[in-house]
Amino acid sequence: MACRLIFLLLILLPSIWASANKEDVGVLGRVRESKSREMFNAFGSLSSFPDSPMPLLGASNGPQSLEESAMDVESAAEDPQGYSGRKDGERGDHSGESVSGDLEAAQKALDRLGNLAGEMRASGRRSERGSGSPSLHSNESEEQFERRLALERDLQSEAAARHEREVYRNEHELQRFEKATEREEKADSRKQEEVKEAQRQALKSHVRHVKEDEEGHEEFLEREMREDAKAEREDVLQQEVKERRERKEAAEEQEQQRKEEMEAARRMEKKFHSQRKEARKEEGKEKQEEEAVSALVPAVGRKRLPSGEEEGVGPEEEKQISKVESVDRKEARAREKLQEEEREHHQQEDEREEKLRHMQGKVKEEEEEKEEEDKQQSAQFVRRAEARAEEEVSKERRKVKEEEKADLEEHLERSREEAAQRKKERAAVHLMEKKRQEKIQKHEKSEEEKVKSSRSDWEAAEREKQALLRKTFLDQAVRARRKMMELEGDAMKRREERRETEREQEVQHEKKLLSSRMERRKEEARKTLERRRASKSLAHEASNPLPPAPPVQGSAREERDGAVLERLRRVDDRDRTKERQRRLREEEEAHAQHSKIKKFEQEAVHRALARDRKWKASM
Questions:
Q1: Can you tell me which residues the record assigns to a coiled coil (predicted)?
Q2: 86, 148, 402, 554 — which has fewest CB within 10 A?
Q3: Residue 136, H or E segment
């Protein structure tokens, strides 16, 4: 970031320097122009100028000599408004000062000349209200009229330049606003794509949880781990491509901005050179006028003798000529100094351009090195991500295998315990049956001994006994079978009801997803339409010289998208929790049903044995 700021400052330095030099040169040119015009007025017509706060030279304190008039010219050129308030003894000698020595004083003089020009324009408007073109006032000379017209032309050119700068600034602001809106639209589109991707991921997770119930656990986990590793690699590659694209767009935008700034600097430099050429032309014209005036000046104080010959030059005329020559020498020294400053300025501009080219080459090399480093880092990141994904996949596989092994061992242990329990129960039943048979045999022997005398009584008793036993066991078996069928029917009914409720919940969830998606799309379409209308209105208002409105921020949309993603995540977590609880309930119900059936069978056996003991005791 710091390198970019330094680069922008280096790009903007030539334009800032050119504008500053342009203002300085313009101020010096205006001061020099006003000075030369004052000198021309001093040697020309010396009439008064009532509309101006600065009286003309030679209009106060009676007639003056040419030397005093020249000194007054210098004082008036350096301080036009303060000249009228000075006394004769307070007029300093500025012959040793340079024209471009004090820019601050020149700026003050320029402000006073601007005030003078404003008053002149006001008086001109008052006098020219009836006619559309400027005219000569009754109380001003031709030189004053020309000076007023020149000042008005200067003010008009300055107003035109200000208008041109304002138009250029407005165009630049409009371009910046358009680029900002374009970047905002790109950011909005990226956010919409991220939201859509999140919705797709949520839907995929929902489908994945549904498929998890239908497919085998081991195959599903392996395929899921492979897909996750592949998706992670694709995400890393997409992120790298996106970062490269963003860096490329930023570099292109920076290059375009640099080109625009260089073009603006070139335009300003061309304009500066054209203005400098015009100033040189005006200086040439002024020099020719001054030469013409200086050629006319020696003939002012000469007289012709009666013989037709001219009288020699007097001391006053020599002073006047020496003063004019000193003024010319000052002007020559000022021009030489200005040319030297221009040469130094050009040399500094060349050095700055060379420095800028060198810095641009260095920045380009640094960007290339940074791009290479980014490529290497992205490749290393991809390799590390792939290694991490493979390691996580292997860990997940080991974890799944360990869990499956533990489940298998637990199942085998439970099956062994159940087999041992069944073996014990069978042994107990076999022992009880054996004891019962032994008791029956003993009873039969005793009965045989008792009923030897009566065979018919014994046979009747035996038939009654067998019938009673059959009836007892048949009734118990029928009741147990009926109870088991009732329990199985209840379980089937509950399963069907649960499936129906799950189907209804899935349908309602899909309806909610569709409705939320439609509402989101409607809201996005409405906001896009509002944004387009706002951009159109801003583009229409950008033609007026008003500052553009700040860009619209998208924090509300980010919060809303985050809330939608959080809600979808909570819905998925709730669905997974409900599914897990449903499985646990089914397992508990199946275990309870199995234990109920087992308990019922044991109670039936105990009741049968108790009845048998009771019957034998009654016998």
A1: none
A2: 402
A3: none
Angle between helical axes of 217-296 and 315-450 (0-180°, round to 10): 170
The two three-digit tokens of residue 597, written as one number = 């059936």
Bridge partners, residue 304, by sequence = 310
pLDDT of residue 97: 43
Residue 598 exposure: Cα atoms within 13 Å on the Cβ side: 10
Q: How far apart are CA 186 and CA 192, in angstroms?
A: 10
143: amino acid identity, one letter: E
Closest C-alpha among 497, 481, 505, 500 to residue 589 = 497
- The answer to whether the Cα torsion of 329, 330, 334, 337 is positive or negative is positive
Distance CA 408, CA 415 (A): 10
* Of the candidates 52, 9, 18, the residue with the CA atom closest to the CA atom of residue 139: 52
Identity of the amino acid at 451: V
| Number of alpha carbons in the 13 Å side-chain half-sphere of residue 437 | 6
Q: How far apart are CA 606 and CA 599, in angstroms?
A: 10
Stretch 138-153: mean pLDDT: 76
Alpha helices in 49-141 (DSSP H): 66-78, 103-127
CA distances from 608 to 353, 434, 470 (A): 114, 15, 11
Amino acid at 128: E
d(CA 17, CA 344): 13
Query: Which one-letter DSSP state was computed for residue 85?
Result: T
**Whole-number Å distance between alpha carbons of 173 and 268:** 18
- Gap between the Cα atoms of 290 and 284, Å rounded: 10
Residue 470 exposed, middle or buried by CB count within 10 Å (0-12, 13-18, 19+): exposed
Task: Compute the distance between CA of residue 437 and CA of residue 128 in angstroms, rounded to an integer.
Answer: 149
| pLDDT tens-digit series, residues 536-555 | 777 666 655 545 545 445 56
Three-state SS at 309: coil
For residue 187, give both structure tokens: 């950011």
Handedness of CA 572, 577, 582, 584 (dihedral sign): positive
> SS3 of 9, please?
helix
- Check the CA dihedral 376-378-381-383 and report its sign: negative
Task: Tell me which long-range contacts 365-370 makes (C-beta under 8 A, separation of at least 24).
Answer: 366/3, 367/251
Bigger pLDDT: 124 vs 609: 609
Which tokens sit at 550? 């700040």
Cα 252 versus chain centre, distance: 16
Distance CA 590, CA 594 (A): 6
Amino acid occupying residue 359: M
Cα–Cα distance list, 566 to 259, 426, 505 (Å): 45, 58, 20
